Every structure is written in C-alpha cells, then in structure tokens.
Amino acid sequence: SNRFSLCAKQTFRWFTRRVSRDMKGALRILLGVAVLAAFVWGDRRQGAREVRDAQGFVQEFYDWYASRANAVDASGPTWSEVVQARPQALDSKLLSLLSLDLANRAKSNRGEQDGVDWDPFLITQDPCPSYRTESVEVRDARFRVHVVGVCPEAHGSSEFEVVVDRQGRRWVIVNVQDQNGYDAVRDIEKVYAGHR
C-alpha cells in the first residue's frame, strides 16, 4: 500500500508538472496569438482611418478647387491659385514644376506661351461643376483616390486618380493620372525638359 501510495504520488507529480509545462506553453502560444491579432486589428483600423483621411483630403481639395475653376473672373490658370494659396497641399516635386511654369508665364511677353496649357488637376480645359471621390486604392505605399467629375451629360465624363501621400502630419498631392496615360508630373516635365 505504501508502494502504491508512493507510486501514485510520483505519477501525480509527474502528471501535474507535465500539464503545468504544457499549459505554460499553450498560454505562451495563446498570448502570442492575442498580441499578433491586436497588432493586425490595430493596423487594419489605422489603415482604414488613413484611407478615410486621404479621401477626405482629396474631396476637400476638389470642393475648393472646382469652385475656383468654375469662377467667371479667373485671372490666370486656376492651378496657379494652388501654388500661391495652398502650396502645402502639393508634394515638393509637383510644386516645383508648377512654380517653374508660373515663372515662365511671368517672363513671357507674348499672349501665348509655351508651357502648361491644360489644368493639371482636372485634365481638361472645361471643368465640371463639382467632383466627388469614389474609392481609394493603396498601391506602391501611396494612396490613389479615384475622382469623378459631376458634369451635365452633354459635357462628357471626367475620371482620374489623385495620388496622395502623408508627409508628416499633412497630406499632399503627389500626382494626377488617368487611364488614358495622362501623368501630370511626367507631362509637365516633358514641357520643360530642356529649360532647366
């Protein structure tokens, strides 16, 4: 009976140590999974917030911009107002290219000048009354906001992507592109390829 008791005690100790060790391992695994899930969930929520912020930035910009593009008393290209009034809304490369065009316009004595003769933000000379953001895609670590012009049927449609990036605490427009191959930065660079 003592032997049985001793054997039972040893078996019980071995069993409890084994279960305890297995439980600790299981708890470690469970804790690791919980931390990873919290990280992924938090990252997903952060990503969703950035998508909303990017879309909101572009919508606010185009609400402001369309009202100026449709103004009758415009004295110069509408996009020049962005360079002068809202340069912080542009990436430094795009701002530099548009500033170069403004400087070229200031030097020009002719009625017509070589340079940007289209609206780089609307890809047209005939703006729609308003523009709305429809969707956002994250590609190449940048946010591509799909924008659609809200135009009368006779005017035709206008769709393009505004590429934005977060620089510090602010959003900036990096480029404007469309499905037909328009690329604002590349196309303005072509205009001034030999002028620098």
Describe the overall structure.
The chain is an alpha+beta fold and 196 residues long. The protein has four helices and four strands. The chain has helices spanning 2-69, 78-85, 92-107, 184-191, and strands at residues 130-139, 142-150, 159-167, 170-177. A hairpin with a 2-residue loop joins strand 1 and strand 2. Helix 3 runs parallel beside helix 4 (184-191). The protein is elongated, with a radius of gyration of 30 Å.
Brief account:
This protein is of the alpha+beta class and 196 residues long. The chain has 4 helices and 4 strands, in the order H-H-H-E-E-E-E-H. Helix 3 packs parallel to helix 4.
Name some characteristics of this structure.
alpha+beta, 4-stranded antiparallel sheet
Radius of gyration: 30 Å
Task: Outline the low-pLDDT stretches.
Answer: 37-44
Which strand order does the major sheet show?
A: 1-2-3-4
Secondary-structure element order, N to C: HHHEEEEH
Mean pLDDT: 81
Helix segment count? 4
The helicity comes to 40-55%
Characterize the biggest β-sheet.
4 strands, antiparallel
Strand content: 15-25%
Distance between the termini: 101 Å
Topology:
Layout: H1 2-69, H2 78-85, H3 92-107, E1 130-139, E2 142-150, E3 159-167, E4 170-177, H4 184-191
Antiparallel strand pairs: 1-2, 2-3, 3-4
